Amino acid sequence: MDSKEAIIEATITLINEKGESLNEITVREICKKANVGLGLVNYHFGNKDKLIELCVERMISGIVDHFHSIQEKTDRLAPFEKLDYLGNMTLTFLFDHYAISKISILSDLSSPEKNDNTHRTYKAYLPLVSACRPDWDKTVVKRKTCCLIAAMQQAFLRCEVILQTQGIDLSVQETRSAFHTQILHDILEI
Q: Which ranges does the entry annotate as DNA-binding region (predicted)?
């Protein structure tokens, strides 16, 4: 394995170990785990923050890919039930992996790219929204899918504000699920 990939793997391991405490990860710790010299982090990635951002994107990307395989397991569900189930699964992942999810979403919002994780999530949700509303044309489906993804990201990023302004505690699974279901009804108009 080359030094760049060793650094990435070591960083992902540390991210998984530290959880919410990403700021505690040091370059020295990364290099020790990867068994490489200290200067290689800056050489390959520019700085620790860029390295962590890359690793988070890779981790989230794996989850988005896994999402497609889970879709197949929900084939027996009606379209709305499937969208509700997968949306709740997505939100649960976001809240369970708060630090990496926040980095991923904020990175996609600040530097959008054609195949970033937000776009890949959008592409995964697009056929589900279409199946829920076969009466909508493609343009409406695309717009409503964007609205759904944005609403989910905002609910996650602004969960404290939602608690303060609406009294809805999205850190509680049942409350979050009911909130998500209502957003689906609002956006899908069903």
A: 26-45
